[in-house]
């Protein structure tokens, strides 16, 4: 006879029990076998279950039939099958695929899909009240006016609505909530448990969108057809303002009309913008958001709503890809080129690439949109693996901004008076003139500098000492309005010292180079009557503050915005006609594979903020190297030539996307042990045709959070399957205690 689940896992009952493999969200490479108590059947792949693991109880997912040769007597039973829909097969496929590709433990990938474990618990019921009697005379309660009103309200409560809480009922009757409880105690009202899931309004796919231009209509037709078909990937490429969003909304409408769900992935930063509002305007209801900054309770609600199929559209950051959509029909990846889709911590995956895997597994369309698609995606489109849909023109005939470089060698910025002393300037005279003219016309200026804080380096004028992070090989960045020095890698903070910590000289520490705050200081002095605002991730606290600021800018309440990349994307400011790029060369230094591509994408995107409506825009790009291919491509608008040169350069050295790349970062507190481990890895590096191992060498951040970091790079031809090579390689090297290796397949920026 079967014992109750949760009893001691006896051997007695499982003689003939079926066994299944259950994957747990812990760092393991494979599922474990468990026995299915016969009365729990049918148990099928995807079912969420609770099982014993050591002395704990864990929640996992049935992954398939049990196979391992665990003796029957050792097999432990599944304790409970949870009352949530099974994890859909395409999501399980994605998890398998993602683990195999990134070499992350399978259970660790599952963990991303079960990121809010409390979402698996049934919602806690609240107490509602229904009338138990027709009249108070049926009880021993004295019939007061207040009591009569409450009983009446309870009897009149529409049966289509869940029974009201005490407060709701009291409000309806116009009395205090204690009256309700008194009536319940006296037997006039019955308390009933009510389980409520938050109400979700469905977007309406049949609302009319804007009238599309012929270009847009053609593009929308292609996307709608893709949304009706099976698996496909389409690149929608169009300059900023060409209407990519309006066009892919048509594919969203098509998918919703067919009763399937839609996922829109945006780079984290773009979620603060007006996207959800635009969606609501188009479809009459907001999309469900999903990103890491959301309150846990909200994430719980949305996870459940997705799992139960009550949500039809999610707009989210990369982790939304691991939500349990029961019938996903379309994924859109907006700003497909954005580095934010690559996760660096935990499982290092690129959501853009994994979206394609999810689309194939679910047999539905994937659409990538960008004004500056990545080289990978462009090559995929050229090779015919992705369909290509261009949107060549800005909507409504708005002109693209005129982009000019401003050669800093020919136009050196002139020092200005700061508290009676000459201070360095970061703005060349022609830019200052253009700013002046723009403000006089009542238009707006955006100065773009992708650097938070006041100055990236603080240096002692007496001894040359540089203020460095004690935990990282990085300079401390001055944040003047908060009067502190801060590490942008580990968040170490210290007050700005009065004297140099090395030589003790007073007042000798000086800022070096500009951050947005320092540019703002100069602008405030040169344009004393202009209304300024600094927009950076540390000055905009939260999505609400960001949205408010964007609205103020849109309404013309600001003259000059000095912003980092939070200002680069998605916004549409009708009065903004001048963009000044303070330091276009900033991202180009260093040996990063994607430095040029990324700089081009970012600067192109920022330029797109200028002149989107009737007023033409102008972009001035300050650079010390106007002949650089990135600057030339920006000015000419010729992304094609730029990408061709990029492609050639990378092909010559067999770098991605022409070759494969895997980074191995060895880290630990003890530098000597890290170096030794790096050398040991190099000694047993795989020797195979078309495979090359470089390093070890200090990683770009050689010390991070006190961890020393050395790196090896495995480079291989595209035809090589690198995962088995790397797996065998790691298995062959025994690491000393305290040293770990992080594998990053397709590292993004390095
Ligand atoms: P992109 O995503 O390519 O930058 P958007 O879809 O954001 O372009 O469109 C830019 C602006 O033009 C938006 O304000 C959008 O509402 C407007 N727009 C685009 N297409 C149309 C259209 N067919 N009718 C009306 N407004 C449009
Ligand atoms: Zn640090």
UniProtKB/TrEMBL annotation:
It catalyses: Couples ATP hydrolysis with the unwinding of duplex DNA by translocating in the 3'-5' direction; ATP + H2O = ADP + phosphate + H(+). InterPro entries: DEAD/DEAH_box_helicase_dom, Helicase_ATP-bd, Helicase_C-like, P-loop_NTPase, PriA, PriA_3primeBD, PriA_3primeBD_sf, PriA_C. Binds 2 zinc ions per subunit. Component of the replication restart primosome. Belongs to the helicase family. PriA subfamily. It comes from Rhodospira trueperi. The gene is priA. This is Replication restart protein PriA. GO terms for cellular component: primosome complex. Its EC number is 5.6.2.4. PANTHER family: PRIMOSOMAL PROTEIN N (PTHR30580). Zn(2+) 2 binds at residues 469, 472, 487, 490. Zn(2+) 1 binds at residues 460, 463, 500, 503.
């Amino acid at each position: 006879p079967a014992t109750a689940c949760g009893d001691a896992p006896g051997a007695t009952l499982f003689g003939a029990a079926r066994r299944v493999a259950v994957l747990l969200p812990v760092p393991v490479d494979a599922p474990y076998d468990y026995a299915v108590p016969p009365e729990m059947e049918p148990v099928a792949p995807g079912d969420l279950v609770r099982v014993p693991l050591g002395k704990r109880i864990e929640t996992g997912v049935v992954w398939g039939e049990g196979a391992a040769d665990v003796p029957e007597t050792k097999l432990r039973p599944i304790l409970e099958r949870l009352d949530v829909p099974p994890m859909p097969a395409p999501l399980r496929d994605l998890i398998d695929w993602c683990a195999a590709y990134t070499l992350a433990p399978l259970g660790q990938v599952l963990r991303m899909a079960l990121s809010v474990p409390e979402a698996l618990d049934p919602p806690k019921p609240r107490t509602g009240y229904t009338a138990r009697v027709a009249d108070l005379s049926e009880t021993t309660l004295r019939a007061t006016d207040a009591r009569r009103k409450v009983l009446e309200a309870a009897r009149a409560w529409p049966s289509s609505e869940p029974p009201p809480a005490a407060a709701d009922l009291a409000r309806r009757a116009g009395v205090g909530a204690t009256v309700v409880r008194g009536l319940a105690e006296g037997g006039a009202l019955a308390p009933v448990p009510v389980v409520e899931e938050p109400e979700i309004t469905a977007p309406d796919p049949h609302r009319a969108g804007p009238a599309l231009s012929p270009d847009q209509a053609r593009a929308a037709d292609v996307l709608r057809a893709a949304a009706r078909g099976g698996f496909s990937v389409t690149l929608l490429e169009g300059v900023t303002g060409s209407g990519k969003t309006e066009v892919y909304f048509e594919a969203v409408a098509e998918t919703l009309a067919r009763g399937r769900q839609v996922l829109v992935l945006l780079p984290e930063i773009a979620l603060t913008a007006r996207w959800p509002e635009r969606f609501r305007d188009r479809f009459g209801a907001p999309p469900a958001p999903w990103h890491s900054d959301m309150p846990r309770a909200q994430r719980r609600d949305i996870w459940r709503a997705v799992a139960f199929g009550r949500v039809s559209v999610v707009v989210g950051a990369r982790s939304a890809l691991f939500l349990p959509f029961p019938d996903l029909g379309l994924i859109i990846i907006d700003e497909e080129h954005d580095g934010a889709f690559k996760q660096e911590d935990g499982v290092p995956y690129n959501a853009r690439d994994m979206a394609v895997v999810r689309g194939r597994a679910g047999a539905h369309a994937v659409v990538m949109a960008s004004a500056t698609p990545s080289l990978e995606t462009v090559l995929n489109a050229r090779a015919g693996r992705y369909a290509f849909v261009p949107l060549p023109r800005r909507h409504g005939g708005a002109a693209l901004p005129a982009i000019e470089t401003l050669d800093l060698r020919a136009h050196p910025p002139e020092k200005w008076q700061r508290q009676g002393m000459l201070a360095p300037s970061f703005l060349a005279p022609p830019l200052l003139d253009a700013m002046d003219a723009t403000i006089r016309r009542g238009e707006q200026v955006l100065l773009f500098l992708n650097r938070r804080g006041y100055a990236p380096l603080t240096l002692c004028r007496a001894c040359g000492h540089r203020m460095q992070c004690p935990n990282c090989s990085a300079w401390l960045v001055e944040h003047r309005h908060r009067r502190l020095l801060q590490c942008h890698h580990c968040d170490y903070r210290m007050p700005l010292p009065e004297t140099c910590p090395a030589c003790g000289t007073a007042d000798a520490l000086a800022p070096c180079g500009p951050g947005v705050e320092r540019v703002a200081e100069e602008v405030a002095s040169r344009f004393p009557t202009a209304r300024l605002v600094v927009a950076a991730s540390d000055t905009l606290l939260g999505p609400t503050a960001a949205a408010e600021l964007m609205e103020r800018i849109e309404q013309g309440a600001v003259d000059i915005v000095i912003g980092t990349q939070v200002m680069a994307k998605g916004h549409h400011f009708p009065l903004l006609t001048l963009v000044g790029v303070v330091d276009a060369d900033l991202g180009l230094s260093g040996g990063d594979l994607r430095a040029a591509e990324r700089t081009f994408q970012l600067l192109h995107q920022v330029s797109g903020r200028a002149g989107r409506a009737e007023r033409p825009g102008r972009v001035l790009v300050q650079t010390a190297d106007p002949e650089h291919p990135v600057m030339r491509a920006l000015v000419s608008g010729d992304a094609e030539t730029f990408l061709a040169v990029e492609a050639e350069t990378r092909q010559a050295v067999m770098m991605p996307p022409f070759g494969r790349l895997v980074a191995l970062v060895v880290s630990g507190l003890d530098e000597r042990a890290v170096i030794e481990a790096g050398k040991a890895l190099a000694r047993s590096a795989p020797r195979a045709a078309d495979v090359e191992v470089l390093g070890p060498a200090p990683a770009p951040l050689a010390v991070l959070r006190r961890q020393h970091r050395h790196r090896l790079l495995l480079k291989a031809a595209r035809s090589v399957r690198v995962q088995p090579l790397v797996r065998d390689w790691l298995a062959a090297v025994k690491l000393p205690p305290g040293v770990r290796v992080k594998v990053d397949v397709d590292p993004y920026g390095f």
